[in-house]
Design brief:
single chain; mainly alpha; globular
């Protein structure tokens, strides 16, 4: 199997850019969960040191190594639902992470468009523009992926706001369902739809940014 790590030799810029973008985006995602949870009455994540952008706290060594090896990583912020007064609060905490990725995608697309507007594609400026484009695509995909209605993803708690019966699923059943869906996403063409829609959404943001700055 070709590992993501091969890009360290084949395409060092892409390798470094992807690692930085994904690590930073996950840290911002998890920070957003912790911050909104604190605002809504749950200080669990704050007490455990998750009000930070430190990747060793937000992601952990195993996740960082996975990022270097296969280009995929994860984070986890502890949340105590008992401290959140309503389902709306629980959904707000869950949505905070994907919302942070959406914000990063929009900002990246706008900065890319502003840079392109200046017609600076040579040397370092060209690398910055490419980095911002990668960031827009990556965060668009993270936004959509995390909103999938899978028990271990944020989309489950967001969907439960509208379908409360979802919260009655036992931890064991939720775990089995999550693994089945994740295996399907990784081992079947189903995963291509997630990446495809992420790319499509990223392209839309880049086009909107280009239109806003009067080019493209």
């Amino acid at each position: 199997m070709n590992l993501f790590l091969r890009y360290a030799w084949d395409d060092p810029f892409f390798f470094g850019a992807w690692v930085i973008i994904i690590a930073f985006s996950i840290c911002v995602h998890e920070y957003a969960h912790a911050r909104v949870a604190l605002l809504l009455g749950d200080d669990t994540a704050a007490e455990e040191g998750h009000l930070t952008l430190n990747p060793f706290r937000q992601m952990g060594l195993t996740s960082l190594l996975a990022l270097l090896a296969v280009g995929i990583a994860w984070g986890a912020v502890p949340v105590d639902p008992r401290r959140l007064r309503t389902r709306f609060h629980a959904a707000a905490v869950a949505f905070a992470g994907p919302a942070a990725n959406l914000l990063l995608a929009v900002v990246s697309a706008l900065l890319w468009a502003a840079l392109v507007r200046g017609d600076v594609f040579d040397g370092e400026a060209g690398h910055v523009a490419l980095f911002l484009k990668y960031a827009a695509y990556a965060n668009s995909t993270l936004f959509l992926f995390n909103l999938l209605p899978v028990p271990i993803l944020d989309g489950w708690s967001v969907a439960a706001l509208f379908f409360p019966a979802m919260l009655k699923l036992t931890a064991s059943a939720a775990g089995h369902l999550s693994w089945i869906i994740l295996v399907l996403l990784v081992a079947t063409p189903l995963g291509n739809f997630v990446w495809g829609y992420g790319d499509l959404f990223g392209s839309l943001l880049l086009r909107l940014g280009a239109a806003l700055f009067g080019h493209g």
